[in-house]
Predict the 3D structure of the following.
Amino acid sequence: MLTVQTSHGDEFVLVIELLREPDEVKRNWWPRYLTGLYAHHKVPIVLAVLCHDDVTADWAARPIVVGTDFWTSLEVRPLVLGPRDLPLPEGPICEAELPLAVLGVITHGDDPRVGRVLEEVAVALKAVDAAVRDQFSSMISRALREPSAVEKWGELAAMNIDL
């Protein structure tokens, strides 16, 4: 969960959920989770669901409608992103590109090519606030499933790159 401020001064809470496969139980919790966060923070909440494959992304993108045929009390429409939406980053990553680069790594967490970009991401992470760095690093650690990428990320952390 990140508090984000836009260039226009608007603030919102970004909730990032990693979904590896369709999970109806998890999906059914999203309305309660989002309304609870909204009641607590009193700012808009955006749920971003990151998926490792496009089939799961298509499944997760369906709106959740709470209501009846004649009245909708609540509709949850997550921002769903999969591999087709977020490319793997290439080359050096500047601080402004870091959030999208991290999201790209997360959605490609089981792609054999993801290991090639981890060092660039680690270098870019060194330039950001420690709290943001910790959140991004943690999200990457949880998302990586490709064995050589998991090993490489562990090596980068062991080299004291503050991951």
Summary: The two ends are 18 Å apart (CA to CA). The mean pLDDT is 92. The chain has two domains: 2-81, 95-158.
